[in-house]
Amino acid sequence: MTACPPNRRKFNFWTLFPLFWLMFLAYPIIGFFDRSHSPAEWLLFWGVLVGFLAVYARVFFFPGAGQGWALAGWVYSLLAYFVLFPVAGGGATAFLIYGGSIIGYQGRVSLALWLAVFNVMVMALPLWNGSYTLEDLAWLGPNMVFTMVAAYANYSSYRRSVADGLLVQVQLEKEKLAADAERERIARDLHDILGHTLSVIVLKSELASKLAERDPRRAAQEIREVEQISREALQEVRSAVRGYQGSGLGAELARAKVALDAAGVKLNVSALPALPPQTEASAALLLREAVTNIVRHARAREVWISLAPTPDGHRLTIRDDGVGGLNAEGSGLTGMRERLRAIGGTLERRGEGGTTLSAQFPAAHGAAAAGGLVRA
């Protein structure tokens, strides 16, 4: 008798399959009706039968019944056999088969098989006192075999259902972790895309406010640039929503120059080699975060940016001559460390004589492989 998995909740054929095995109750019922009985025996027989049905349903039809119910069902089936054998004859042997089936529905195979063997031995006891007829002996052997098979089959079914339940839990946990990671990625992207741009807008707006009276033409020019930067920011947000990552390292360098010029910081850039798309997107976002921090906090006069090939990929270095130090990193740099780690890169930060950020980007094939591991 193979039971339905205990963690199933949708009704289907396999959910109701244990009802099929209740047909074996026909044997004790037929055995009972073969003889005449007193009212007390009638009450005993049907009371025990109803109790058995309740235990059977608890084990096979209620998710999470637990291993204790399997043992309780085996004990009840054994008692039902001994109680009903005098009134139902050999037909009561069906309860020993049910006991072997029920005890299999737990996670200890040794317990299931040994108790099923015990049921088989009990099944053979009437052989010694001649209680079985020749007709009974014809089906005793198959019943013994079937009791052992049912015990092991239900044990296997139970273990499979437990494994399926654990698999569902793991899948749900993976989905939750993926959702959390996606929320973190969106938060990083919003910070990377908008943090720098909004800082430039604030800086230029303050400059325009100061120039409004003494140099209206320059102030108007600053306001026009604020408008242009705002439009670009809006376009970047739309691109991010569509799944794009920035607009390339060259475009980010141009925006960095605008921001640094507005803050009175000189920009020195070495020749930049071409980068793979995924590496370029991460490099552009790192450059944006670094320039934002320089404008906000560094009080620097000059910035040096270089990108050089290395045996393992490319190294982007951003150095300024500002106040430096190694204060606690904000969410921007922390997010960039996670972004680089996701593609197999690293980020180093030094605070002597200003601030130096050194990012190692893996080769194109390495980045693609690391990205695949993160997405899996």
UniProtKB/TrEMBL annotation:
It comes from the Bacteria. It holds the Pfam family HATPase_c. Keywords: Kinase, Membrane, Transferase, Transmembrane, Transmembrane helix, Two-component regulatory system. Residues 278-365 form the Histidine kinase/HSP90-like ATPase domain. InterPro entries: HATPase_C_sf (IPR036890), HATPase_dom (IPR003594), Sensor_HK_TwoCompSys (IPR050482), Sig_transdc_His_kin_sub3_dim/P (IPR011712). The chain crosses the membrane at residues 12-30, 42-62, 74-99, 111-131, 137-155. GO terms for molecular function: kinase activity. PANTHER family: NITRATE/NITRITE SENSOR PROTEIN NARX-RELATED, SENSOR HISTIDINE KINASE DESK. This is Sensor histidine kinase. It comes from Deinococcus arenicola.
